[in-house]
Prior knowledge:
The protein has 9 helices and 8 strands. By secondary structure, the protein is an alpha/beta fold. Strands 5-4-1-6-7-8 form a 6-stranded parallel beta sheet, with helices on both faces.
Amino acid sequence: MNPKYKLILFDLDGVLIDSKKNMELSWSSVEATFELSVPFEDYFKLIGRPFDDIMDELGLSDQADQIKSVYDVASSCRLDLIDTYENCLDVVERIKKMGLRIGIVTSKDKTRTLEIIKRYNLLFDVVECPEAKERGKPNPDPLFRAMLKCQRDPSETLYIGDMDVDMEAARRAGIDYIHADWGYGNCGIDVIRALIPDDLLELII
C-alpha cells in the first residue's frame, strides 16, 4: 500500500470532536455577563473562523478581548460537555499507524486545543492554532505553516474539515480537501465527502 498523502490535517470542532454543547454553554455565559442579545445560532454559524473575526462579524469587536476571556474560562470549565465522534479517534490512530503524519489546524486557541487533545492520548505531529496578528481560515496561512513544520508539499497533504472556511482554506493552499459530513457545516456539491469517519481510510489511499 502506497498512500497518496503523507500529511493528513484535521479541523478540530465538528471533525474530531463535537463541542456544540460546550460552545452553547460558553456563549450563554458571554450573553449573561455582557447583557448581549446575540443568539447562539448567530455565533455558531460563524465557527471555523478566528474568534476576533467572528466578533467583527457580530459587531462586537470593541469587546472582543473581554468576551474571549469569559468564553474561554466557561469553555475550559466544562470540557466534560465535549464528545468525540464514533470511531473518529480510532480512525486517526489507524492513519498514524500507516506511517502518515497527522496534524490539527483549528481556529480554536492553543490553550484549549491542547487541553482537549491531551484527554485523548493521541500524539499529533503538528497542532496549528491562531496566534495574534496572524491570518486565520479561510486564509491558507495556517495550512501553509503546518506543511512547513512537517516538511510536506501541498501535493502530499490533505485537509479534512466541515465548514466552508475549511474548504476555502484548502483550495487557496492548493491541497486536497475532504468534507466531514458528520460535522456542523455544508459545502458545495463538487466536494469529496466522507459520510462517516471510517470512509476516510478508503479516501486517503
